[in-house]
Hints:
Number of helices: 18
Helix content: 55-70%
Strand content: 5-15%
CATH topology: Preprotein translocase SecY subunit
CATH class: Mainly Alpha
Amino acid sequence: MASSAEQLAANINLKAFSKAADLKKRLWFTLFALLVFRFGSYLPLPGIDVGVIDELARQHEGGILGIFNRFSGGALSRMSIFALGVMPYISASIIMQLMTVVSPQLEALKKEGESGRKKISQYTRYGTVFLGGIQGYLLAVGLEAMSGPTGSAVLIPGMFFRVSTMITITGGTLFLMWLGEQITARGVGNGVSLIIFSGIVSELPRAIGSTLSLGLSPAVIIMMLVVSVGIIGCVVFMERAQRRILIQYPKRQVGMKVYGGQSSHLPIKVNSAGVIPPIFAGSLLAMPLSIVSFSAEKGADGSWLSAIAFHLSRGSIAYNVLFMGLIVFFAFFYTAIIFNPEETSQNLKKNGGFVPGYRPGKHTSDYLDFVLTRLTVIGAAYLSAICIIPDFMFAGFNAPFSLGGTSILIVVGVRQAPSAPIQSHLLPHH
């Protein structure tokens, strides 16, 4: 079965594209919005020493800050106004999705339809402001504690710097959130995902250059290339893999006509959660570990914060176990949100469909839940394995292996997303 990208490549032609005026406007708007994001990632925060920040960024390139920096498109290493990227918004979305499961009021809002979703989106924006403010203030405190060989990272530390940094960082995050919503509404694809995608892609040339500048042996470089190609192939294969459940519709006669008697398939992806689990896990790990790292630098060498920062550093056993555990949790959690076996079973029953060998209702629901659980186990294992490969490479060869794991998952997953809307805009012009 051809993917949407393959169908787009087979059906696209320049004549149809030249006629699709609305599609061209959407593509130009998406490109312009991403250029605005890239321009803003080079605007530094007021009151910081850019030279000291650059030195400190190179020291932390292989740690948790390096991972967080790739999500922000290098904005964190430059301490720009977009230093936090869209991570506070993603964290607020995580909290709201958790609350919709726990809180009956929010669950009722979710079932109200469009009006309920708008209210939940509004609560998510409030949460983004709150988290952005807290993280911006903590980032300012951490910057005041940092110093390099040439001096302190902050020119004039104090409460004015903390408040101004908190407001600037929060404003930058809110602007990116608004920009992502505009891309989704007036552009092509999901705006927030495209912002993360463009940030990661923009950092890949620099990451490749820094890896090659380490003087690694040709055998190690070839092995890293082979592993990267293998990761990409595995991601493409697993993202397209699905279990197709046969659905049968019985024949029924209405007047003189006979309806039904057909069969179809219910596709269930092996990785139904997509790139959400690694993004959620990375966003939850990044900020707390960053605060611990900042505090550990400020304290003594034998402090308990230094011990935590050492044991939770990238490549350590504790970090990998915690990261994999969060990925598995969010894989099951997000899959349970987007696919409800009971609701699917009831919809099949209303439409007269059934799974051969299982009675409609609870038996069908239990069967779908059994299949979904087994597929999610495979999907969670696949996500965990892909995401920790760079850490093993980093620990084994001490190289910033930035071409695999979460970055490739996001790049491949987000790259396939705009194909369907582009094809839908081109179809009327064929």
